[in-house]
């Protein structure tokens, strides 16, 4: 029987402290492709409580109704519908929404319980329907949680590695092979004092968090009070934090919706590559994990482009949080900033030289145009001077032609005009005299 952890669990937002654990779990809820979380720490530090509380934050998923493998529409068509003898591609597929769950894999689990059992006789006639689903089927599109993962049997570790790498669980019995989808978020907790985790499995997990007990007295008091209140009335306690949980859940959904649109500049990509190389990473898993985590943090912070603080937090979550790593990040940043500054300075100098050349060419063109305009103006002035000289010559000619008229001529003209005036006066006098005579004759008669 598959064990699925259900409510009522301690509310996620009621957990005191342990911010790194909570952040790592939230980021995987937003972006499962990060690859899960490995939480290292002593017993009693809240590791398991945080993982189980994550269930309330998980958004609903859409799966095919009655699918034994918790399959979505695409994987159902690929693994079930195509292979079932009594199904046709035209059959209607009914989808239902269901909450994501945390599926727990116990240490004592057998291989059949993990991968599923297969009835050979039925498999020959019924194909995939002959498979009795195991934990990996139930974990598909959910979270697979393994407490004390470092103590897991090697053969189960190999099975987990294959499923995590390909997203498929393959069951092989007596020459018969059946597969089904198994894409899950792997979360493991462990106490390092009890043994190390196999390197291959550790490499498959995206984030690795080390936790310690809370040392602040007030926080420890609050932990005791909340735990006691929860145990007395779990439903009432969950109700108390319901709004906070819902708010965080909505924030996760919003981050999921914008995740694919998040951008990251090439400078940050260089920082990631240089840090992983300095730490001796030969493969690319750590680079990709940092990149995915940085973008996911940016989406959670509602940044459409990865910021400095998003990148630094991602590096610490993937590679560990220590002062030496922080110093390396700052050193690389300073080197890149200096290089960018030198490049910027070089570009500015190049632009300045180009502008100077362009300015000189422009000034040459302007001077050439000015010389042409000045020459044209000189020619116009010379033409005007020449025209003025011609006018002066004409005036002299006229003066010469009229020089024969002397003062006596003007005096004769004046005398003539005087005589004409006198004649007019005499004429007027005669007219008056004639009128007087007419009056006298009329009077005498």
Question: How would you describe what is shown here?
Answer:
Keywords: ATP-binding, Coiled coil, Ligase, Nucleotide-binding. InterPro entries: AAA+_ATPase, CHLI-like, ChlI/MoxR_AAA_lid, Mg_chelatse_chII-like_cat_dom, P-loop_NTPase. Its EC number is 6.6.1.1. It is an enzyme of class 6 (ligase). The chain is α/β, with parallel strands linked by helices. Among the domains are: 257 residues, P-loop containing nucleotide triphosphate hydrolases (Rossmann fold), CATH 3.40.50; 34 residues. Helices cover 59% and strands 11% of the residues. The strands form four sheets. It has a six-stranded mixed beta sheet with strand order 1-5-8-11-2-12. Strand 9 and strand 10 form a beta hairpin. The N and C termini lie far apart (174 Å). The N terminus is likely disordered.
